[in-house]
Amino acid sequence: MNAQTLQSIAKALVAKDKGILAADESFPTIAKRFKSIAVESSETMRRDYRSMLFTTPNMSDYISGVILFDETLRQSTAGGKAFTQVMHENGVIPGIKVDGGAKPMAGCKAETVTEGLDGLRERLAEYHSLGARFAKWRAVISIGDGIPSDACIDANAHALARYAALCQEANIVPIVEPEVLMDGDHTLARCDEVTTRTLDCVFATLKRHHVLLEGMLLKPNMVISGKSCPNRADIQAVAEATVNCLKRTVPAAVPGIVFLSGGQSAEEATAHLSAMNEMGPLPWEVSFSYGRALQDPALRAWSGQGANVEHAQKIFYHRARCNGAARSGTHTAAMEQVIS
Ligand code: 5MM
User: Fold this and answer.
1) Do the Cβ atoms of 199 and 220 come closer than 8 Å?
2) Domain made up of 3-329: CATH architecture
């Protein structure tokens, strides 16, 4: 493990005004996204869609890195240029999702544990040779009656720590993603309690497994009301609860926090991020690693048509720019109106 290499990659991923694009949808997830625009998920359409995103002019103004799915890491543009080369030329760092997905956890009703540790050392060596310099592993924690259980949180924290240690051994920066889902009618206070419990366990386990905190990034959910909570907390309340929760649980040695959007609208995710950065200075860089909140408007604009590529890229760049402004707490509602 080269600590200096890990730290400089982690820092570059959370450079000023920049954040990460999560484009690592597995086959079932990309099929679901394409279904919403009536496009069939074929290898060619997945390539064309990702190509539209990755060749967006000046994308690196606001995007530092992209998380890819295994298939995408090996793909090229229609013109034959490897996506990793496109990124390299544009100053964007390629990353890779290495988990094998959340699977039902035996003995724990309605809970999951993320699998994928078998053979991970060998896969990481190959991904590094293909150009990946950071990785992502997502654990999924649900809130419900009597859940999450300690067994579920412990098992997921253990897998995250073993994954992170293996990544660092391979000189790949691990993004540790324990996602507490927004599904349900729970309050912001309940999300706060579960997120605190989860992060406390995750960091205790990371330390036990000798993970270098300076050479990793955390990708958490925001502390937010459940989607069907009757009295959803407003932007300021979410920002304050999230920052307070993270200050209690995340060591200042971690260089950056890169939020997931988790089903928030694109504008909502940007507004929350901006409100948090307005509360600064904070102990870590506070940035984004959005999937849907960066892609959804561009996906709709593209709709599977080559003729829409330029327009869709403008929409994608606009979202990246708005989130870039949110990195310094300077995003405004007026900014949403100006698509250049
Ligand atoms: C882009 O979606 C990622 C892949 O999900 P699957 O493995 O389920 O296909 C997902 O892990 C994503 O990176 C995070 O959940 C953050 O995405 P959102 O859309 O919540 O910002």
Assistant:
1) yes
2) Alpha-Beta Barrel (3.20)
Ligand 1 site, residue 48, Cβ cutoff 6 A: no
Report yes or no: 167 and 212 within 8 Å, Cβ to Cβ. Answer: no
Tens-digit pLDDT profile for residues 58-96: 999 999 999 999 999 999 999 999 999 999 999 999 999
Q: What φ, ψ does residue 115 adopt, rounded to 5°?
A: -105, 170
Q: Where are the domains of the chain?
A: 3-329
**CA of residue 299 to ligand 1 center, whole Å:** 15
Task: Kindly report the protein residue whose alpha carbon is nearest to atom 17 of ligand 1.
Answer: 291
Beta strand extents in 101-163 (DSSP E only): 102-104, 112-114, 134-141
User: Which residues are within 8 A (CB) of 24 and not within 5 positions of it... i.e. 6 or more apart?
Assistant: 67, 68, 69, 72, 95, 96, 97, 136, 291
pTM (predicted TM-score): 0.98
140 C-alpha to ligand 1 centroid (Å): 11
Beta strands at 102-104 and 93-97: parallel, antiparallel or unpaired: unpaired
**150 — pLDDT class (breaks 50, 70, 90):** very high
Q: Is the pLDDT of residue 47 over 90?
A: yes
105 membership: H or E segment, kind and range:
none
Give the model's pLDDT for residue 40.
98
Asked whether the beta carbons of 301 and 308 are under 8 A apart, the reply is: yes
CA distance 196 to 217: 17
Q: 112-149 b/e with 16+ CB inside 10 Å = b? A: bbbebbeebeebbeebbeebbbbbbbbbbbbbeeeebb
37 band by pLDDT with thresholds 50, 70 and 90: very high
The span from the CA of 26 to the CA of 274, in Å, is 29
CA dihedral 77, 172, 18, 264 (to 10 degrees): 80
- 340 has pLDDT over 80: no
